[in-house]
Design goal:
mainly alpha; 4-stranded mixed beta sheet; globular
Length: about 450
């Protein structure tokens, strides 16, 4: 086999059968892992309040884009890439109900997208293994409410990179148009895919350079730009170039190589089974002087705006190479099935536990108290939201304005599209509130302590 090349030799029927079977297992496994935390709650997981409000604003504007969202104090501009929010608005029914399930759809579709990309980079069996590992990496799930944009963007990015790899192998107008369209749609779903997408394009082109490939890659870039241009023009005309600069600078990663090596690429922590396999795979490809995956991974870790989910498929491909090496080592001893069963069980259980730790929703009791605070106070009432659990803080700040219809003075979600100064100032206000320093002009304090919510007038 000659993995990690864009031009693949003809696949045998056995290879194709193995890859397809593993993809089927990956989809079923991924669905089970994603459904478990979703079914454990009756509400969207984690965040998503801002997007629910924006989708409702679009509906109220007869599917137009208002100048500002009604979220919180009404200061959030409609500068966010609109694709995911429009799909949420266009889906019939309550946006909150839709937001519980729509991210699951995008997250599941990302699994075959990852397989198709891996199949262009490596061989069929490794692509199937990579899809299975990818399906079980919690960082790729994006099934929280905010996944209506993030999971959609990840799925579209993977598809765009797959079509780019196909384009580099077979340059042509159709492949260029499809790759460009998918790339443009990915950016219109979430801005954070831009930098890793550009870095990935550079690495893939460098692995198979040619004048013809360069020309058609340029055509794909032009198609993507044409799709994104109307949104950019609208934002600049409405809010100025500063809104784009602020939004672009807001989506950065806090990941470090040390953190990745400690927690692992799948965020399973001590149960992370992916990292040792990926490091073994990395050692193997480096030994064979196959530079594509190592260079690609390094760039996605380092690129501004990069996030762990964007490099997940690379970790999965490296882990697949490590897994193949182990299976080849245990096959002579007749331990292949036992090793595969133990490895799959470990990965599944670890991912399931990680899902229950990472993905949870605001409790019904807290949501009920938020709604009561809205009913029993006047419109425009200003609340300081105090949360004693750091795991709940961001999601409570995001959902309080949507559920209560009142203002949270420390909610910073959406303000990244105003200016860096305003966003940072609101983050600082929230930090003060969490330390017990209630700002002047606050009418009420909404407090969450040990899982219970209450509110009272500010002193």
């Amino acid at each position: 086999m000659a993995p990690h090349t864009l031009g693949q030799p003809a696949k045998t029927a056995r290879q194709i059968g193995t890859g397809t079977a593993l993809l089927g297992v990956a989809v079923v496994t991924g669905l089970g892992l994603r459904l478990a935390p979703i079914l454990a709650s009756d509400f969207p997981l984690r965040d998503g309040g801002l997007f629910v409000t924006m989708a409702s604003d679009i509906r109220h504007a007869s599917l137009g884009l208002p100048l500002f969202s009604s979220f919180n104090a009404g200061n959030v501009p409609f500068a966010y890439p609109p694709l995911g929010i429009y799909l949420l608005a266009l889906t019939p029914g309550d946006p909150i109900f839709t937001e519980r399930w729509l991210p699951l759809v995008w997250s599941i579709l990302a699994i075959p997208a990852a397989y198709l990309l891996a199949r262009e980079i490596t061989d069929e069996p490794r692509a199937g293994l990579a899809a299975l590992i990818f399906a079980a990496m919690p960082v790729t799930w994006a099934i929280e409410g905010g996944g209506v944009t993030r999971a959609l963007a990840l799925m579209l990015l993977l598809l765009a990179l797959w079509r780019l790899a196909v384009l580099l192998r077979a340059p042509g107008f159709r492949n260029a148009a499809l790759a460009g369209a998918l790339a443009g749609l990915a950016v219109l779903a979430h801005p954070a895919v831009g930098p890793p997408g550009l870095a990935s394009t550079a690495v893939l082109f460098a692995s198979a350079p040619s004048r013809r490939a360069l020309a058609f890659t340029g055509l794909a870039a032009a198609v993507a730009a044409l799709l994104v241009a109307p949104w950019i023009a609208m934002v600049v005309i409405r809010y100025g170039l500063g809104a784009l600069v602020a939004g672009g600078n807001a989506h950065h990663t806090d990941e470090t190589l040390g953190r990745l090596l400690t927690i692992g690429p799948s965020w399973i922590g001590a149960l992370d089974f992916v990292l040792p396999l990926a490091l073994l795979g990395l050692a193997l490809v480096l030994h064979r002087r196959q530079w594509l995956l190592p260079v690609w991974l390094l760039l996605l870790i380092a690129v501004p705006g990069g996030e762990a989910r964007h490099a997940a498929i690379l970790w999965a491909m490296l882990a697949a190479s490590g897994a193949v090496t182990i299976t080849e080592a245990v096959r002579p001893a007749g331990a292949l099935r036992a090793t595969a069963a133990i490895g799959f069980a470990w990965l599944f259980v670890g991912s399931l536990l990680a899902g229950y730790v990472q993905f949870h929703a605001i409790s019904a009791a807290i949501r009920t108290e938020m709604a009561r605070a809205g009913r029993e106070t006047v419109p425009g009432a200003r609340f300081a939201v105090v949360v004693d659990d750091s795991r709940l803080e961001a999601m409570v700040l995001d959902w309080f304005p949507t559920i209560s219809g009142r203002i949270s003075v420390g909610t910073y979600q959406g303000l990244e599209w105003t200016s860096v100064e305003q966003s940072d100032a609101t983050v600082a206000v929230n930090d003060q509130i969490q330390r017990g320093q209630i700002p002047k002009g606050t009418d009420y304090v909404f407090r969450i302590s040990e899982g219970s919510a209450s509110w009272e007038p500010a002193r």
